[in-house]
Design goal:
With 71 residues, this protein is mostly helical. The chain is built from three helices and no strands. The chain has a domain of 29 residues.
């Protein structure tokens, strides 16, 4: 079973990141989300809330990237 150390990224932490760091985090978390979904499809996770937290982190990063592109 896949074990990931997940944490909720706060918006204040995301704002402090550079664009390169945002892109790097986004790609990494997106890959982790895909892996976690595949693992969950094969055998249930101990805590399905991991999927929600990871999905929300990816959305927070994507929102910040979009906001910075528009500025």
């Amino acid at each position: 079973m896949l074990k990931l150390k997940l944490f909720k990224m706060k918006q204040s932490e995301i704002i402090k990141l550079s664009i390169e760091d945002l892109n790097e985090q986004f790609v990494t978390l997106k890959k982790n989300l895909t892996d976690l979904k595949m693992t969950h499809a094969l055998s249930p996770l101990e805590s399905p809330l991991q999927l929600r937290d990871l999905r929300r982190n990816v959305a927070r990063l994507a929102t910040e990237l979009t906001k910075r592109e528009l500025q």
